[in-house]
Fold this protein.
Amino acid sequence: MVRRSPPTSRIELLQGTLDLIILQTLRWGPAHGFGIMKMIQSQSSNTLQVETGSLYPALQRLLRQRVIAAEWSVSASNRRIRIYRLTAKGRERLAAERSQWKRLTEVMAALMQRPASDEP
């Protein structure tokens, strides 16, 4: 799903997390697949590198769920590209998933800061 180099520096993504990341990326504006990959890589300071074998199935899944829409366009280099954008349903889902993610990170932070017990 995510290319690692070296193994400890890359974060492995779960399917739902990848969907959230794609939705968040499209919140910044419409983009084509390669552009989405580059934005994720750039915004994560090169920590996340989504492979095409993970990105395009996720985009198809999100299209089927109608949380994103797509239309064909022509790039500056005269190549046919598919531009993806968030739908109203996608914005609603993103808001809900961001809220869940925030709660999860708060819980994880609290667990990580809890002092170790001396009990076995």
Observations:
- The CA atoms of residues 90 and 96 lie 10 Å apart.
